[in-house]
Specification:
By secondary structure, the protein is mainly alpha-helical. It has six helices and six strands, in the order H-E-E-H-H-H-E-E-H-E-E-H. It has a single domain, classed as Jann2411-like domain (Jann2411-like fold, Orthogonal Bundle). Helices cover about 45% and strands about 10% of the residues. The termini are far apart. InterPro entries: ABATE (IPR010852), ABATE_dom_sf (IPR023286), Znf_CGNR (IPR021005).
Length: about 180
C-alpha cells in the first residue's frame, strides 16, 4: 500500500476537500476521483475520521459533492443555492455522524454504523456551517489556470493565491522563472 495520499487535502475545510474530488473543475482536463464505491470508500478512509465500511453510493456522493459546490458558490455570491442542492445537503446533514470513543489504551477512535454515510453527513454539515459563517468571504478560487479548486484562505493578510504551494503555487513559480530566463 502506498504512503502517498490518493486524494488532495488541505483546502482548510472537509467540505472543500470533498469538492476537490472533481479535479480540474471547469477545465478540459477534468478528472473524476469518485467513479465508484471503491474510490468513495478510499476517500472516507483517507479523509474521514473512521474506517470506511457500509454502503458506498458513489453516484449519491457525487450528487452531494455538486450540491456542496453549488452551496459554496451561491453563498460566496450572497445567494441561496437551487432547491435541489439545498434538499440534498439538508438530507445528508440529517444522518448520524461518527461518534468518538476513547479506548482503554487512551486512543480516540471514531465509530459509525455506516461510516460512509456518517462521513458524508459531516461533509454536508461542514458545508452548511461554512456557507453561513463569516469565513465564506475567505473562500478563494485557486489561481492555477487549470486547477479549479476552492480553498479557505486563513492567511493573516488574506491574499493567498493557490490551493497549495506544493502544487499550483510551485507550478506558477516555475512558469514565472522560465519566462524570465527565456
Amino acid at each position: 500500500m502506498s504512503s502517498t495520499p490518493r486524494f488532495r487535502q488541505g483546502a482548510g475545510r472537509l467540505c472543500l476537500d470533498f469538492i476537490r474530488t472533481l479535479r480540474h473543475r471547469g477545465s478540459p482536463d477534468v478528472v473524476e476521483e469518485l467513479p465508484d464505491a471503491e474510490a468513495l470508500s478510499a476517500w472516507v478512509r483517507q479523509c474521514g475520521p473512521c474506517a470506511a465500511g457500509g454502503d458506498a453510493d458513489a453516484a449519491g456522493a457525487r450528487d452531494l459533492r455538486e450540491a456542496v459546490h453549488a452551496l459554496i458558490t451561491a453563498a460566496r455570491a450572497g445567494r441561496m443555492p437551487d432547491a435541489h442542492s439545498l434538499a440534498l445537503l439538508n438530507e445528508a446533514a440529517a444522518h448520524p455522524v461518527p461518534v468518538p470513543r476513547l479506548s482503554r489504551t487512551g486512543r480516540l477512535d471514531w465509530q459509525a454504523e455506516d461510516p460512509v454515510r456518517a462521513t458524508l453527513a459531516l461533509v454536508a454539515r461542514d458545508a452548511l456551517d461554512l456557507a453561513t459563517s463569516p469565513l465564506i468571504t475567505r473562500v478563494r478560487d485557486c489561481a492555477g489556470p487549470t486547477c479549479g479548486a476552492l480553498f479557505l484562505d486563513i492567511s493573516r493578510p488574506g491574499n493567498r493565491r493557490w490551493c497549495s504551494m506544493g502544487t499550483c503555487g510551485n507550478r506558477a513559480k516555475k512558469e514565472t522563472l522560465r519566462g524570465r530566463t527565456a
